[in-house]
Design brief:
Elements: E1 13-17, H1 21-33, E2 37-41, H2 44-54, E3 58-62, H3 70-79, E4 88-92, H4 97-105, E5 110-113, H5 118-128
Parallel strand pairs: 1-2, 1-3, 3-4, 4-5
Helix pairs in contact: 2-3
C-alpha cells in the first residue's frame, strides 16, 4: 500500500484550537513534520484574535472548550466575510451523528474523532487546502 504524498501541504498555514495541551502539541508535531506552518490557540477567544493576523488556510477546532465552544467558534469564523471560505475541521472525542450534524450546521468542512492519527490530520489538510496560501 502506497503512502500518501504530503508534499503539496508544505508551507500551508494551519491553526489548531484545542484546550488540551497534549492534543495541540501532537497536532503541531505532525503538521510541522509535514512542513506546515502552525498557529496554536487554547480556546475560541484566543483563536479569533489570532485568525486575522495569521490567516490560516485550514483550521482544526475542538468542540468541547471552555468559554466559547467549537460550534460557536466555527459559526463566528464562518460569519466573517473574510474567513467564511476557510475550511474548519471539527475535533472531538465524541463520534455521534448529532455532533457531526451540528458541526455541519455551523459550517464545518469535516469532523475528525480524537485521538486522530498523523495520516488523518495530514489528509484533512491536503483535502481542504485547495490552494497554497501566500506566505507572508
Amino acid at each position: 500500500m502506497a503512502t500518501q504524498d504530503f508534499t503539496p501541504i508544505r508551507g500551508t498555514r494551519v491553526m489548531v484550537i484545542d484546550d488540551s495541551n497534549t492534543i495541540r502539541r501532537s497536532a503541531e508535531i505532525f503538521l510541522k513534520q509535514a512542513g506546515c506552518e502552525v498557529i496554536l490557540a487554547n480556546d475560541g477567544f484566543e483563536a479569533l484574535a489570532k485568525i486575522n493576523d495569521h490567516q490560516p488556510a485550514v483550521i482544526f477546532c475542538d468542540i468541547l472548550m471552555p468559554r466559547l465552544d467549537g460550534y460557536q467558534t466555527c459559526a463566528l469564523i464562518k460569519r466573517s466575510p473574510r474567513f467564511s471560505k476557510t475550511p474548519v475541521v471539527m475535533l472531538s472525542s465524541k463520534d455521534g451523528l448529532f455532533d457531526r450534524a451540528r458541526g455541519r450546521m455551523v459550517g464545518s468542512s469535516e469532523y475528525l474523532t480524537k485521538p486522530f492519527t498523523k495520516d488523518s490530520l495530514l489528509t484533512a489538510v491536503l483535502e481542504h487546502s485547495t490552494r497554497s496560501p501566500a506566505l507572508a
